[in-house]
Amino acid sequence: MAYDRYVAICHPLHYVAIMERRSCAWLVAGSWLSGIPVSFIQTTLVFTSPFCGPNKIDHFFCDVAPVLRLVCADTSRNEMSNIMVTVVFLATPFTLILTSYTCIIATVLKMSSPGSRHKAFSTCSSHLVVVMLFYGSGMVMYLRPRSSHEPENDKLLSLFYTVVTPMLNPVIYSLRNEEVKGALWRRVAGKRLSPLQ
Length: 197
What we know:
Elements: H1 2-10, H2 15-18, H3 21-47, H4 64-68, H5 76-109, H6 114-143, H7 151-174, H8 178-193
Helix pairs in contact: 1-5, 3-5, 5-6, 6-7
């Protein structure tokens, strides 16, 4: 989506040629298929380790870090794998997204019309908020050393990037629609103006 916004704002006349169906298919396929080897490697590393003790984790779902707490052997190889995956699949896309938004902001600031600037900023700001929430909480979760992981903080962070951010995503994007905004304001104003029961 960041690349789509970059092309739409920085190269608007070439948008149709650049974002053709084949390009979009390659972007989607690349993002989906890149996760398969990572999942396979991490699953193999975790479940070939020896487990002992309690078989319950203090977490909402079976994430790698909580499951590694149950391993009886040295988990440094798993932790190194997690850091590499985080850098490649979280920090790298986040850096690319921030770079694209830097180019977008530079282009928007060069626009002469205040209306065009406002429209471009409002188009991109909602996506940037969701990106910051998702990648920020994910990187805090996975780039911390194991010694600083506390179960309560881990649960809160994982809840944030797995539930809160995806839940906010449709809300943020639907609030850009004028009809939805109008209905929301009418609903809020109607609640305030209705007599107390």
